[in-house]
TrEMBL record:
Domain Phosphoribosyltransferase: 15-120
Organism: Vreelandella andesensis
Lineage, opening ranks: Bacteria, Pseudomonadati, Pseudomonadota, Gammaproteobacteria, Oceanospirillales
Protein name: Phosphoribosyltransferase domain-containing protein
Superkingdom classification of source: Bacteria
Pfam families hit by this protein: Pribosyltran
Amino acid sequence: MQIFFKSYADLNSDIKKNFDKISGNWDLVVGIPRSGMIPAYIISLALNVNCTDISSLVNNFPLKKGVTRGIKNNISQPWDANKILLVDDSILSGDSLRKEMKSIPNFLKKRITTLAVYSNKPVRNDVNIVIEFIPLPRVFEWNIFHHKIIEESCISLEGVISINKSNGKDVIKSSYLPSQKVNTIVSCRHELQRQKVVDWLKLNSVSFTNLIMVNNDVELNNMDNFSIAKFKSEAFRNSSARLYIEGDAEQAKMINRNSNKPVYCQASSKIYNPGINFEYKEMKAMGKLVVWKMLNLRPRS
């Protein structure tokens, strides 16, 4: 199985290379919180126009801007804008966009053009502009720890959920805390420390189904990179999880090779997918993606 992925860097790059789809005489860019605010600010800075959120648009709150650069269309309130670009990071069913549009006064709707950076369909009529087609299953760097994929993931405790132990201090410090229930947490701490780890996870509101720990005489400090990756690979391979989340790039690659399942590396912001042994649905999605890319490589008049 392959999982399609976009990082912050990909988001910026995809907007840049498709900027001809966006460029125009916009007066205002509006982002749909939370994720839509990221591309909205990227686009607004490139266009050199004001940016705000849905609530501020609906309530006509005064626009805020810095003093270090001049704005092309120097309007003071959202309702002064004649051309508005409404931005979200992605569109799936279209329900979120429809819900947001319902909250907008009718006289403003006529001024709005909708944009989704990523769509799960190559062609659709519920949004005006799509930047890139990306098939399912997909996940983004900015939402991976809050995505439902976490319920089908193995996550390394050390290096992801917590900072690796250092200087010999047996202290657990939080790093990236998932908001969804984790399928399996994998820790290189010894089984004797289970209660301590469980208590720490509970204290930090991290819920999980399984917790796998080292059950021999060797612990993280005494394991080489290969042994750690082998331990994690076995845990992943024997689990029902579809994705592994790892903090070390070399280990991520080894876990991917050993398990033949996708691994997301927090350090490199990449997903390492298994070799091209696609099922029918994945082949169909890849075919659509190839056609989309071919069509979008054609010179635009």
